[in-house]
């Protein structure tokens, strides 16, 4: 049939996938089953590893509507494949997709269940999400509004058996199983048993870790998933939270609860701890959703989860306290359940994370393929040689397959993991915990780190630096505090005491740190109505604030005829907070309506961003020098809050205030002045940023704070050096038919830079706000990459914008780290290559790394450990590759004389040398400081390949020399059990006839070639281990790694001992024969020269000595390439010289962009210029972002 075009599910979302439909084909299934039987199950394994092959081998293509199986491929860079079985659900009732039925509420849809027919609804499940077939769009969709399912975030803990099967079916373990079977057939039981033992320990450890992670996540999720709730249906009834569906009205208990779903408040208020989702432990006040009839713009708008966050109770958050009035219950409407909730999405991102994309792992597979190709050559060579020498078929099969297990070492995964495990332990010792060990290697490549500001670069708390009041449109001199008896009855102090969202929890004031500091600075006292009082009164039972008695003027003497109650009322000074409009990040302000005790008229108090507050005030009340004063404070790094006040009309009664529009309340205010808050840098911040700068690691600030404050902090901490220029990009969206545009201006004295762009030798930094970032992302996509290349300060950034910035930086090939305190940083922490949370709250479960140290000193520590782990991985991989090749060379040479290494020789090499060395060479700690040089990111690079190739050639050369030289010795003859080359007299008496008549060793293990190669190759393993065990500048020197030093010295002593002082028991065990002492001396010199050549070639200073000392023609061409630097420095140059001489093009996109921009005369943009987006043609939007033009401002 004709193929249907690809369908897209989750279009334009993070998990977008292409979808194809297939129908099971019986004859194809039969053919595949036969193939599985013929291959002994190997084909089944192959189809298990490759789901796309499985579907295409057993099914035929069909339309998605008729599909029995769907094949999905992610559209991201990873191109992962998934298969899912399409199931059918019988849904009694009308068609839920019918257009007319859509107008009816979900409750009505599910009420109509008595219709005579049943509708078949097709769906499939992937990653805990159900996709339903929708005939209207002819595709599968996530339709949570129609099919709710059980309200439960089900984290199923797999059984040990299921986890075991999944772990064992890993390709490496299958290869190990194949190797063990082969070795057992070859009677090589000892190493087979050792590999089985290692594999069992590895599998058991892995199973324990995975099971523990599942159990921890399950316990964290299910602890409060199933609770009893009160639901308002026909009556208020008790129900399990699993039965909740969107549309249900649930009652929030007064003593608090853990929310089992996402719900929007429709009555009452709640105080909520949202640390589960945001990492911020500061309680948040949630108010009820405004009614549409109130005239509020927000109330008239349709409900949106993003826009109405402050009215939404999120799943997993802890409701600490509720407030209700007039006997009303606090109610909320359920809007999302199960995995659709905010908590469910977080859990799903943990359960199904994106794979780690790192060049090292891709190159490792390519390198293994090269080893497989080498093994294939040896496989063919051994078969041809064996057939030519009439070797039995069984021996041919075993020995030829044995070549493969020698070339591709089964112990490689365990060896590669060792360095990461050791690095994880070292990180744990310094208080950094890791839940994704593979990310440690990636952290070694970080070349850019983003930092949150508040709580990360600066202290958590804010200190009140001072206040600057305004009277009659003029600023007073700044004052240290407002705790004065002269100011106690001023509107300025009244605003500070009332305009906040603080609340008493267990007798302690809680709320936003800024509000807390501001209120504490007044010295006032806050009193809230008790539950009994609120239940007896209407909503007008207010929170009351009053000054301490010591600030009040002396009380007049009471006359005897005065009524006591009237006297108390007249002498008391209390302000009741009648209504609160909570702080909105979109509006950048909050407002309260308050009434002074005894006054008939009420007051409105406003607090917020200075620019916003000033725009809402009468012009004559705002000082003329307002902008200059504000800029002066922000440049010094202060956080500035503006206050305003308005006397309300007497006709506004307490009841009317509850329904008044916020915009009406916040108009025509009188400007009161500024509160100046100081956010001090943490003591470690400047030093750490200086270390990162010296290491050529870029630093970027991503904050929700004010732009100028962020720039000032960036300068104070050294992120922007004093001499560097800061260019602010102000972007405006399209408006009234005008295109989007960016205005460029300088942060410092713009008049100095008018019409003059920074010179190429000058350093410049871009700064922009979250609004500008959103406009640039949407309308100037081709400019975005250029801006992030020098973007240093990103202010007023929303959580999703932080994530978008991380993605933009990664798109130009930066390895990005993110360090935040957990508040609103979860998405960015997850998306970065290395996310470090400074919060130990539950939100840190989304971050790969969590630091107990609450400052950024953990960042260089993590990078240093990452670099050490990465270099360790390279060292181990190179060593294991050389180990395979050295053994491959030995076996190949011995195959030429129909010999091989003995079982105990293999065992000694594989266990006593290789395993001991590989697990101790990984113990080198990280270097004590960060250096500017970064380790290579992959194995397929000039220096590393050159290093491996030269060592292979060296080992090949010296083994070949030993193999051929021994055959040309005067004492050499074909070895027999009666041979004794150590005793010359006996050797003279043995004739050729005697030699030929003796019974030979069946496997021909004992011979002079075998013994010579065993000695030389055993020392070669130790030599390459030492030359590959690199220290400075990424790891501590190997001599500080005492387990490795002791292991190497011990092995050297043992090897020299058995070579110069043969012990018959050891010789018999290792199946080596006695050779003359002079040949041992020759072997000793071969080993010494081999060691010297290997060490000198691998080191920077040795190339001159090697060039003059080594006369082998094999090395002359390579050594003539360059006369300076070691392998790591000149290897790449030498290879490129051999291939072709041409200018090197940078691989990283950001370096390529930097080269382009360095010759662009229009970059960076000049001050007072505007960049305007060109209008795309109607119906033909630009494919790759908007084009733009630069214009000078008139």
From TrEMBL:
<feature type="transmembrane region" description="Helical">
    <location>
        <begin position="904"/>
        <end position="923"/>
    </location>
</feature>
<feature type="transmembrane region" description="Helical">
    <location>
        <begin position="1104"/>
        <end position="1127"/>
    </location>
</feature>
<feature type="transmembrane region" description="Helical">
    <location>
        <begin position="104"/>
        <end position="124"/>
    </location>
</feature>
<dbReference type="InterPro" id="IPR023214">
    <property type="entry name" value="HAD_sf"/>
</dbReference>
<dbReference type="InterPro" id="IPR036412">
    <property type="entry name" value="HAD-like_sf"/>
</dbReference>
<keyword id="KW-1278">Translocase</keyword>
<feature type="compositionally biased region" description="Polar residues">
    <location>
        <begin position="1183"/>
        <end position="1194"/>
    </location>
</feature>
<feature type="domain" description="P5B-type ATPase N-terminal">
    <location>
        <begin position="13"/>
        <end position="134"/>
    </location>
</feature>
<dbReference type="InterPro" id="IPR044492">
    <property type="entry name" value="P_typ_ATPase_HD_dom"/>
</dbReference>
<keyword id="KW-0597">Phosphoprotein</keyword>
<feature type="transmembrane region" description="Helical">
    <location>
        <begin position="403"/>
        <end position="423"/>
    </location>
</feature>
<dbReference type="Pfam" id="PF13246">
    <property type="entry name" value="Cation_ATPase"/>
</dbReference>
<dbReference type="GO" id="GO:0006874">
    <property type="term" value="P:intracellular calcium ion homeostasis"/>
</dbReference>
<feature type="transmembrane region" description="Helical">
    <location>
        <begin position="870"/>
        <end position="898"/>
    </location>
</feature>
<keyword id="KW-0967">Endosome</keyword>
<keyword id="KW-0812">Transmembrane</keyword>
<feature type="domain" description="P-type ATPase A">
    <location>
        <begin position="234"/>
        <end position="350"/>
    </location>
</feature>
<dbReference type="GO" id="GO:0031901">
    <property type="term" value="C:early endosome membrane"/>
</dbReference>
<dbReference type="GO" id="GO:0015594">
    <property type="term" value="F:ABC-type putrescine transporter activity"/>
</dbReference>
<keyword id="KW-0460">Magnesium</keyword>
<dbReference type="InterPro" id="IPR008250">
    <property type="entry name" value="ATPase_P-typ_transduc_dom_A_sf"/>
</dbReference>
<dbReference type="InterPro" id="IPR001757">
    <property type="entry name" value="P_typ_ATPase"/>
</dbReference>
<feature type="transmembrane region" description="Helical">
    <location>
        <begin position="1012"/>
        <end position="1029"/>
    </location>
</feature>
<feature type="transmembrane region" description="Helical">
    <location>
        <begin position="1041"/>
        <end position="1061"/>
    </location>
</feature>
<feature type="transmembrane region" description="Helical">
    <location>
        <begin position="1081"/>
        <end position="1097"/>
    </location>
</feature>
<keyword id="KW-0472">Membrane</keyword>
<dbReference type="InterPro" id="IPR018303">
    <property type="entry name" value="ATPase_P-typ_P_site"/>
</dbReference>
<dbReference type="GO" id="GO:0005524">
    <property type="term" value="F:ATP binding"/>
</dbReference>
<dbReference type="InterPro" id="IPR023298">
    <property type="entry name" value="ATPase_P-typ_TM_dom_sf"/>
</dbReference>
<keyword id="KW-1133">Transmembrane helix</keyword>
<dbReference type="InterPro" id="IPR006544">
    <property type="entry name" value="P-type_TPase_V"/>
</dbReference>
<keyword id="KW-0067">ATP-binding</keyword>
<keyword id="KW-0479">Metal-binding</keyword>
<dbReference type="InterPro" id="IPR047819">
    <property type="entry name" value="P5A-ATPase_N"/>
</dbReference>
<dbReference type="Pfam" id="PF00122">
    <property type="entry name" value="E1-E2_ATPase"/>
</dbReference>
<feature type="region of interest" description="Disordered">
    <location>
        <begin position="1161"/>
        <end position="1194"/>
    </location>
</feature>
<comment type="function">
    <text>ATP-driven pump involved in endocytosis-dependent polyamine transport. Uses ATP as an energy source to transfer polyamine precursor putrescine from the endosomal compartment to the cytosol.</text>
</comment>
<dbReference type="Pfam" id="PF12409">
    <property type="entry name" value="P5-ATPase"/>
</dbReference>
<comment type="similarity">
    <text>Belongs to the cation transport ATPase (P-type) (TC 3.A.3) family. Type V subfamily.</text>
</comment>
<feature type="transmembrane region" description="Helical">
    <location>
        <begin position="27"/>
        <end position="49"/>
    </location>
</feature>
<dbReference type="GO" id="GO:0046872">
    <property type="term" value="F:metal ion binding"/>
</dbReference>
<feature type="transmembrane region" description="Helical">
    <location>
        <begin position="188"/>
        <end position="210"/>
    </location>
</feature>
């Amino acid at each position: 049939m004709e193929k249907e075009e690809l369908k897209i599910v989750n279009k334009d979302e993070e998990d977008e996938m292409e979808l194809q439909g297939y129908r099971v084909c019986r004859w194809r299934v039969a053919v595949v089953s036969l193939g599985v039987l013929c291959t002994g199950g190997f084909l089944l394994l192959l189809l298990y590893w490759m789901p796309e092959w499985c579907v295409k081998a057993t099914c035929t293509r069909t339309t998605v509507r008729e599909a029995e199986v769907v094949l999905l491929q992610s559209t991201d860079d990873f191109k992962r494949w998934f298969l899912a079985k399409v199931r059918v659900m019988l849904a009694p009732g009308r068609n839920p997709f019918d257009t007319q039925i859509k107008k009816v509420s979900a409750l009505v849809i599910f009420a109509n269940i008595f219709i005579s027919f049943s509708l078949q609804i097709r769906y499939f499940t992937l990653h805990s999400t159900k996709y339903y077939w929708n005939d209207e769009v002819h595709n599968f969709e996530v339709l949570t509004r129609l099919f709710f399912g059980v309200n439960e975030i089900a984290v199923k803990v797999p059984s040990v058996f299921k986890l075991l099967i999944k772990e064992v079916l890993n390709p490496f373990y299958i290869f190990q199983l194949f190797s063990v079977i082969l070795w057992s057939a070859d009677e090589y039981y000892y190493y087979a048993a050792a590999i089985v033992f290692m594999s069992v320990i590895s599998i058991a450890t892995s199973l324990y870790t995975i099971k523990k992670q599942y159990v921890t996540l399950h316990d964290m999720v299910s602890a409060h998933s199933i609770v009893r709730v009160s639901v308002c249906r026909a009556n208020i009834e008790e129900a399990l939270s699993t039965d909740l569906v969107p549309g249900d009205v649930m009652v929030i208990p007064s003593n608090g609860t853990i929310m089992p779903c996402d719900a929007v408040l429709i009555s009452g208020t709640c105080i909520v701890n949202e640390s589960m989702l945001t990492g911020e432990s500061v309680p948040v006040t949630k108010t009820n959703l405004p009614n549409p009839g109130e005239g509020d713009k927000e109330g008239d708008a349709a409900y949106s989860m993003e826009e109405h966050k402050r009215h939404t109770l999120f799943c997993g958050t802890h409701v600490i306290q509720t407030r209700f009035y007039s006997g009303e219950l606090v109610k909320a409407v359920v809007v999302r359940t199960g995995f659709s909730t905010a908590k469910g999405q977080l859990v799903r991102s943990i359960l199904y994370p994106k794979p780690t994309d790192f060049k090292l792992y891709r190159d490792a597979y390519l390198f293994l393929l090269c080893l497989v190709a080498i093994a294939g050559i040896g496989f063919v060579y051994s078969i041809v040689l064996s057939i030519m020498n009439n070797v039995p078929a069984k021996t041919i099969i075993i020995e030829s397959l044995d070549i493969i297990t020698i070339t591709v070492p089964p112990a490689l995964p365990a060896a590669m993991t060792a360095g990461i495990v050791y690095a994880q332990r070292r990180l744990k010792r310094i208080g950094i915990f890791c839940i994704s060990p593979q990310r440690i290697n990636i952290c070694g490549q970080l070349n850019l780190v983003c930092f949150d500001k508040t709580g990360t670069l600066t202290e958590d708390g804010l200190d009140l630096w001072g206040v600057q009041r305004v009277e009659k449109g003029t600023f007073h001199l700044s004052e240290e505090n407002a705790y004065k008896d002269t100011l106690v009855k001023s509107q300025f102090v009244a605003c500070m005491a009332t305009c906040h969202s603080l609340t008493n929890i267990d007798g302690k004031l809680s709320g936003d740190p800024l509000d807390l500091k501001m209120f504490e600075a007044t010295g006032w006292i806050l009193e809230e109505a008790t539950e009994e009082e609120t239940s007896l009164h209407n909503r007008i039972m207010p929170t009351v604030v009053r000054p301490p008695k010591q600030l009040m003027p002396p009380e007049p003497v009471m006359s005897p005829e005065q009524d006591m109650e009237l006297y108390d009322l007249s002498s008391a000074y209390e302000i009741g907070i009648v209504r609160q409009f909570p702080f909105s990040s979109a509006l950048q302000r909050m407002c309260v309506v308050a009434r002074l005790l005894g006054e008939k008229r009420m007051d409105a108090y406003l607090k917020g961003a200075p620019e916003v507050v000033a725009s809402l005030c009468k012009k004559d009340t705002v000082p003329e020098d307002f902008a200059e004063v504000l800029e002066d404070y922000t440049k010094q790094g202060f956080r500035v809050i503006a206050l305003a006040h308005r006397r309300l009309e007497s006709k506004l009664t307490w009841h009317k205030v509850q329904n008044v529009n916020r915009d009406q309340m916040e108009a025509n205010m009188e400007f009161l002045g500024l509160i100046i808050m100081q956010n001090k840098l943490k003591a470690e911040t400047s030093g750490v940023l200086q270390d990162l700068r010296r290491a050529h690691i870029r630093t970027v600030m991503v904050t929700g704070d004010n732009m100028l404050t962020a720039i000032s902090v960036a300068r104070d901490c050294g992120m922007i050096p004093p001499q560097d220029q800061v260019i602010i990009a102000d972007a405006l969206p399209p408006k009234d038919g005008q295109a989007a545009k960016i205005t460029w201006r300088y942060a410092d004295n713009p008049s100095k830079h008018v019409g003059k762009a920074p010179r190429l030798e000058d350093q410049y930094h871009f700064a922009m706000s979250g609004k500008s970032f959103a406009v640039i992302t949407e309308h100037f996509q081709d400019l975005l990459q250029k801006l992030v290349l020098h973007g240093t300060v990103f202010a007023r950034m929303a959580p999703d914008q932080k994530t978008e910035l991380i993605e933009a930086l990664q798109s130009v090939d930066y390895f990005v780290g993110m360090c935040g305190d957990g508040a609103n940083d979860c998405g960015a922490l997850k998306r970065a290559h290395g996310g470090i949370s400074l919060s130990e709250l539950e939100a840190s479960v989304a971050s790969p790394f969590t630091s107990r140290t609450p400052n950024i000193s953990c960042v260089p520590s993590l990078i240093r450990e990452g670099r050490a782990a990465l270099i360790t991985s390279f060292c181990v991989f190179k060593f294991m590759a050389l180990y395979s090749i050295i053994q491959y060379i030995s076996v190949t040479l011995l195959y030429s004389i129909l010999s091989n290494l003995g079982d105990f020789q293999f065992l000694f090499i594989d266990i006593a040398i290789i395993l001991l060395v590989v697990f101790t060479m990984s113990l080198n700690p990280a270097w004590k400081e960060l250096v500017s040089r970064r380790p290579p990111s992959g194995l397929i690079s000039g220096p590393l390949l050159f290093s491996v190739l030269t060592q292979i050639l060296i080992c090949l050369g010296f083994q070949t020399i030993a193999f051929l030289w021994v055959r040309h010795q005067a004492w050499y003859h074909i070895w027999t059990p009666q041979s004794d080359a150590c005793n010359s007299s006996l050797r003279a008496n043995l004739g050729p006839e005697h030699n030929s008549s003796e019974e030979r060793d069946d496997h021909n293990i004992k011979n002079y070639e075998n013994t010579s190669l065993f000695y030389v190759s055993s020392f070669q393993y130790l030599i390459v281990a030492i030359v590959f065990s690199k220290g400075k500048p990424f790891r501590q020197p190997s001599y500080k790694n005492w387990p490795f030093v002791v292991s190497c010295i011990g092995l050297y002593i043992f090897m020299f001992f058995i070579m110069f002082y043969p012990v018959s028991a050891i010789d018999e065990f290792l199946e080596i024969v006695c050779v003359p002492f002079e040949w041992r001396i020759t072997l000793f010199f071969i080993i010494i020269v081999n060691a010297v050549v290997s060490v000198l070639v691998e080191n920077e200073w040795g190339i001159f000595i090697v060039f003059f000392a080594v006369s082998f023609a094999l090395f002359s061409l390579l050594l003539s390439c360059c006369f300076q630097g070691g392998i790591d420095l000149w290897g790449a140059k030498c290879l490129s010289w051999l291939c072709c001489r041409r200018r090197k093009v940078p691989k990283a996109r950001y370096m390529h962009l930097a080269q382009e921009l360095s010759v662009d005369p229009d970059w960076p943009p000049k001050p007072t210029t505007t960049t305007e987006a060109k209008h795309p043609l109607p119906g033909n939007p630009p494919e790759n972002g908007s084009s733009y033009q630069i214009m000078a401002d008139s």
